[in-house]
Amino acid sequence: MATATRSTVINDPVGIHARPAAEFAQAATASGCTVTIAKEGGAAVPAGSILSIMGLGIKQGDTVVLTVDGDNAETVADSLVDTLVKAE
C-alpha cells in the first residue's frame, strides 16, 4: 500500500466552508483510499467527515496537509488537491 502527502494553501476568502467541505469529503470517500486532512502543524482528521473538516476552522491563507493511504495514492492525492482548489 502506498502513501502520498500533499500540501496546499487555501485561497478562498472564506476558507473551507460547508460546500467545499462537502465536495472534498465526497471525493475523499469515493477514492477508496484512507484520507486525512490537517492544518499544517495540527492534528489530522478523517477527510470523509464534513464535520471533522469544518471543525479544523481552515481560513484563507492556511496551509492544509492531505495524507492518502491506498492504491494509486499519488493520483488520488493530486485529484483531491484539485478538488480543494476548484471548490474554493
Automatic annotation (TrEMBL):
Gene3D superfamilies attached to this UniProt entry: HPr-like
InterPro entries, alphabetized: HPr, HPr-like, HPr-like_sf, PTS_HPr_His_P_site
One Pfam family named in its UniProt record: PTS-HPr
Superkingdom to which the source organism belongs: Bacteria
Keyword Membrane listed: no
UniProt cross-references to CDD domains, sorted A to Z: PTS-HPr_like
Residue span(s) of domain HPr: 3-88
GO biological process: phosphoenolpyruvate-dependent sugar phosphotransferase system
Family matches, as SUPFAM superfamilies: HPr-like
Subcellular location(s) of the protein: Cytoplasm
Cellular-component GO terms for this entry: cytoplasm
Chief place of localization: cytoplasm
Keyword Nucleotide-binding: no
Alphabetized UniProt keyword annotations: Cytoplasm, Phosphotransferase system
PROSITE patterns cross-referenced by the UniProt entry: PTS_HPR_DOM, PTS_HPR_HIS
Record function comment: General (non sugar-specific) component of the phosphoenolpyruvate-dependent sugar phosphotransferase system (sugar PTS). This major carbohydrate active-transport system catalyzes the phosphorylation of incoming sugar substrates concomitantly with their translocation across the cell membrane. The phosphoryl group from phosphoenolpyruvate (PEP) is transferred to the phosphoryl carrier protein HPr by enzyme I. Phospho-HPr then transfers it to the PTS EIIA domain.
PANTHER family xrefs: PHOSPHOCARRIER PROTEIN HPR, PHOSPHOCARRIER PROTEIN NPR
Protein name: Phosphocarrier protein HPr
